[in-house]
């Protein structure tokens, strides 16, 4: 989760959080405190500059048919790739949903988040700024995967877009050149990206799987001739790759 360093310093000191993730899932004693953390954290994501890695990636795949399946919720992909080419499987912190959820709708939250941050009282927000569901009055929560995550119309639309893209790519004519590029996927939820990618690479003749990760990743034996593993700093790997491709384009190779 990239965020602006320093913006959560007071929370870090008061609660001992080692990461924003810890603050996000902490059990606060009041919704005003909970929303103070959410607001500050989400605002830091709105304000964070777009990572160069995202631009490099976009440059590398320029001119190709591309789809992004991501478990990131930090709105970075949305700034660089077209919205209709992204499936945000675990949600997006830039939206609210009802905490029940009592209805199928998500709401952009930037304005209210900024208002909360401007009016913060220490590490709490005023009660009147708690985001309330307009249908049932319950407190809203960020649209991010947890036990009440709304897999509603917007979520399903993303999944359908992804599935139809795959279907179209893996037809016989095009299946010779499908690259399944896995970038920095951790071990927490292998069922969303990693395992389906392994299966698709194995089952489809022309598909090839590339895994880039900070550390050594597990590599299945049956993908031996259909996969490539690149360990190390992802941002450096993509930057180098972009340079190499640029060089090749320049020499016409
Ligand atoms: Zn509701």
UniProtKB/TrEMBL annotation:
Entries under PROSITE patterns matching the protein:
SIRTUIN
Gene3D superfamilies cross-referenced by the UniProt entry? SIR2/SIRT2 'Small Domain, TPP-binding domain
Where on the tree of life does the source sit, at the highest rank? Answer: Bacteria
What the entry lists under InterPro entries is as follows: DHS-like_NAD/FAD-binding_dom, Sirtuin_cat_small_dom_sf, Ssirtuin_cat_dom
SUPFAM superfamilies per the UniProt record, alphabetical:
DHS-like NAD/FAD-binding domain
At which positions is Zn(2+) bound? 98, 102, 133, 136
Q: Where is the Deacetylase sirtuin-type domain?
A: 1-253
Q: Which UniProt keywords apply?
A: Metal-binding, NAD, Transferase, Zinc
Gene Ontology molecular function terms on file: metal ion binding; transferase activity
Q: What is this protein called?
A: NAD-dependent protein deacetylase
């Amino acid at each position: 989760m990239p965020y602006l360093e320093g913006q959560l310093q007071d929370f870090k000191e008061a609660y001992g959080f080692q990461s924003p993730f810890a603050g996000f899932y902490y059990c606060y004693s009041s919704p005003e405190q909970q929303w103070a953390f959410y607001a500050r954290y989400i605002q830091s994501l709105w304000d964070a500059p777009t990572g160069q890695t995202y631009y490099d990636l976009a440059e590398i795949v320029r001119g190709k048919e591309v789809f992004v399946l991501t478990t990131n919720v930090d709105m970075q992909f949305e700034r660089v790739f077209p919205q209709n080419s992204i499936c945000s499987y675990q949600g997006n912190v830039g939206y609210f949903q009802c905490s029940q959820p009592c209805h199928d709708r998500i709401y952009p939250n930037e304005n209210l988040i900024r208002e909360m941050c401007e009016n913060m009282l220490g590490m709490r927000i005023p009660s009147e700024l708690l985001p309330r569901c307009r249908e049932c009055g319950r407190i809203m929560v960020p649209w991010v995967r947890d036990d009440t995550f709304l897999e509603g119309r917007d979520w399903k639309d993303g999944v359908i877009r992804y599935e139809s893209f795959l279907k179209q790519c893996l037809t016989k004519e095009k299946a010779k050149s499908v690259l399944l590029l896995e970038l920095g996927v951790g071990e927490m939820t292998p069922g969303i990206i990693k395992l389906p990618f392994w299966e698709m690479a194995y089952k489809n003749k022309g598909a090839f799987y590339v895994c880039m990760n900070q550390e050594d990743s597990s590599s299945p034996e049956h993908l031996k001739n259909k996969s490539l593993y690149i360990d190390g700093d992802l941002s450096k790997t993509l930057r180098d790759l972009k340079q190499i491709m640029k060089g090749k384009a320049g020499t016409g190779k």
